[in-house]
Amino acid sequence: MNRFRSSLAVAVALALGAGAASATSVQKLSLQELTKKSDSIVMARVDDANASWDANHKDIYTYYTLHILQPVKGRKGETTITLRQIGGTVGNIASIVPGMPSFKKGEEVVLFLTQKDAAGYPWVMGLQQGKYSIVEKNGAKVVRNDLSGTELLSKSGQKVQSTTSPDQPLGAFLDGVKTTLGGDGKIQVDPNPPTE
């Protein structure tokens, strides 16, 4: 058993070392772009995670089951969602993709998701950019977006500094997203008000 753990520790250390030396490049998306381009946006809790090899035993995928706490865009009436991400650990083999969002069981998140892929699973939009973790800070829930391991590029291909976004109150964050969508929180003004 100790030999197995040693092998796993070495494999993870090697993979982490390789990941630290490189990053995944992706176009920088503003919150408004994430909101408009996403097929769906949900506030959810991570209930389960399972990693396995694909049918050809070539790639490892991790399947995350999330309980939808609040649909923000799309997903109306759905209670769960399953994500499939490349990377994960099976036995003593770890596959790590820098910039790919990571999830912990019990974690609450706000996710910006793509349409389902050919296999029937949505992906997080813009890799780590589309995952906001919900954390407690001074007794209130805030959202945080950690972009470590992700190299952001402008539309012209220039590198853009990637940093962890400042914490934002959860309610204000969701209101901003809904305003961008034209939903609740946005005041509709009649350009031709009735005259008396």
Structural write-up:
This protein is α+β, with helices and mostly antiparallel strands and 196 residues long. The protein has one domain (23-181): Beta Barrel (OB fold (Dihydrolipoamide Acetyltransferase, E2P)), CATH 2.40.50. The chain contains three helices and twelve strands. β5 and β6 form a beta hairpin. Residues 1-21 and 184-193 have low confidence and may be disordered.
- Strand percentage, roughly? 35-45%
Radius of gyration, in Å, reads 19 Å
Helix content percent band: 10-25%
Biggest sheet strand order reads: 4-3-2-7-8-9-12
Count of individual helical segments: 3
Please outline the major beta sheet.
7 strands, antiparallel
Secondary-structure element pattern, one letter each: HEHEEEEEEEEEEEH
Structural class: alpha+beta
How far the N terminus sits from the C terminus, by CA atoms, comes to: 84 Å
Mean pLDDT: 81
CATH topological fold name: OB fold (Dihydrolipoamide Acetyltransferase, E2P)
Give a topology summary.
Layout: H1 2-21, E1 24-27, H2 31-37, E2 40-53, E3 60-73, E4 80-86, E5 88-90, E6 93-95, E7 108-113, E8 131-137, E9 140-144, E10 150-153, E11 159-160, E12 168-169, H3 170-181
Keywords for this entry:
alpha+beta; OB fold (Dihydrolipoamide Acetyltransferase, E2P); three-stranded mixed beta sheet; seven-stranded antiparallel beta sheet; 196 residues
